[in-house]
Amino acid sequence: MRMSFYQFLMTQRNPNSADEVQQFANNAFFDTTFPKHSEDFDEISHYLEENADYLPSMTIFDEAWQRYIDAMN
């Protein structure tokens, strides 16, 4: 079974890191309304654009998404 993007993102958490994707993961962990079961780029992207004040740039999401795709293949 393929893991959701959120499940993958949680593997990227590191509270002591300056890596932007890891910071995104750290912040997403505290986002109680994040679409935790989604594997859909558009759904997650739309959610982040509308709700994630903690994400300074969608480029960070794009990088995290690429890591997710690479890990799933």
Folded structure, characterized:
This protein has 73 residues and is mainly α. The chain contains four helices and no strands. It has one domain: DNA polymerase, domain 1 (Orthogonal Bundle), CATH 1.10.150.260. It is globular. The chain has helices at 5-10, 20-29, 41-51, 58-72.
- Content-based structural category: mainly alpha
Topology pattern, helix = H, strand = E: HHHH
Which fold name corresponds to the CATH topology?
A: DNA polymerase, domain 1
Low-confidence regions:
none
Total number of distinct structural domains: 1
Shape: globular
Number of strands: 0
Mean pLDDT across all amino acids: 95
From the alpha carbons, calculate the radius of gyration and give it in angstroms: 11 Å
What is the assigned CATH homologous superfamily?
YozE SAM-like
Q: How far apart are the first and last residues' alpha carbons, in Å? A: 12 Å
Q: What is the CATH architecture descriptor?
A: Orthogonal Bundle
Number of helices, where a helix is a run of at least 4 consecutive DSSP H or I residues:
4
The level of helicity is 55-70%
- Biggest sheet, in brief? none
- Content of β-strand: under 5%
- Any idea of the CATH class? Mainly Alpha
